[in-house]
Specification:
2 helices; about 15% helix; 15 strands; elongated; 2 domains; alpha+beta; about 240 residues; Immunoglobulin-like; four-stranded antiparallel beta sheet; single chain
């Protein structure tokens, strides 16, 4: 058989298989949506998130189906626009199990609000096992108040490496706090999620090293999931 003829047969076979798989996905979605047998995504959220220190604001989508990978995912805005439309080019790749999608961070917050209006966002998809998913999540633009650093103070120096307790002021209408401590050169970090009545976090023993700079951030989270982060740094005391 001529090589050119074999190549044509191979390409035709691959295209036929791909089209068949895509048709199966579309037909499964149509049937399951018509019969109301879709499952809810394990995770399907949309939130406003800001870094108040840098003045950056973005929209963040998080989606997770089940144990199997997602072969197709569509997110529709309240005004009917499609804001995300993913399809696995080849279903044999098993799809993507979890998505975290972040918008750009434009200079003007209003342009972000225009691009992602408040309201109900619809999530639809199908996984590699043929299970159809459908969920909704509501976005609002209300960002929470930011925390204030009480201990250590912003850009503090000579911080003891033992028994350090991160402290901040208590805020209203906050359901949880996120405390992050990072040191890139040592490649270490801590992320702690605390309840809305918390005002402190004890740094684990032996985590901090003497004479070292650390990045510290505190996030405030609303019941809708919106987050405001503030960032600073501190430097630990050197060895005696």
């Amino acid at each position: 058989m001529p090589k050119q003829f074999f190549l044509i047969i191979l390409i035709t076979s691959l295209l036929t298989t791909h089209c068949t798989q895509q048709s199966t996905i579309q037909e499964t979605q149509r049937v399951e949506q018509a019969t109301g047998s879709s499952k809810a995504f394990e995770t399907a959220t949309v939130r406003f998130e800001q870094n108040a220190t840098d003045g950056d604001v973005e929209v963040v989508f998080e989606v997770k189906g089940g144990d199997a990978g997602i072969l197709s995912l569509k997110i529709t805005a309240p005004d009917g626009r499609i804001v995300s439309d993913f399809t696995a080019p080849d279903p044999t790749t098993l799809g993507i199990r979890q998505f975290v999608m972040e918008s750009p961070e434009p200079k003007g917050v209003q342009s972000l609000k225009n691009a992602y209006p408040e309201g109900v966002y619809s999530f639809t998809g199908i996984d590699a096992e043929g299970i159809s998913f459908q969920s909704e999540a509501t976005l609002n633009h209300q960002l929470p108040a930011t925390a204030s650093f009480l201990n250590p103070m912003a850009e503090a120096k000579e911080i003891p490496i033992e028994a350090l307790e991160i402290k901040w002021d208590l805020l209203e209408n906050i359901v949880s706090y996120i405390v992050e401590i990072e040191q890139d050169e040592l490649e270490v970090n801590i992320t702690a999620k605390l309840t809305g009545d918390a005002t402190s976090f004890a740094v684990p023993e032996h985590f901090l090293q003497p004479g070292t700079d650390y990045a510290l951030s505190i996030g405030t989270v609303t019941k809708e999931g919106n987050i405001s982060f503030v960032e600073t740094s501190f430097t630990t005391a050197g060895e005696e």
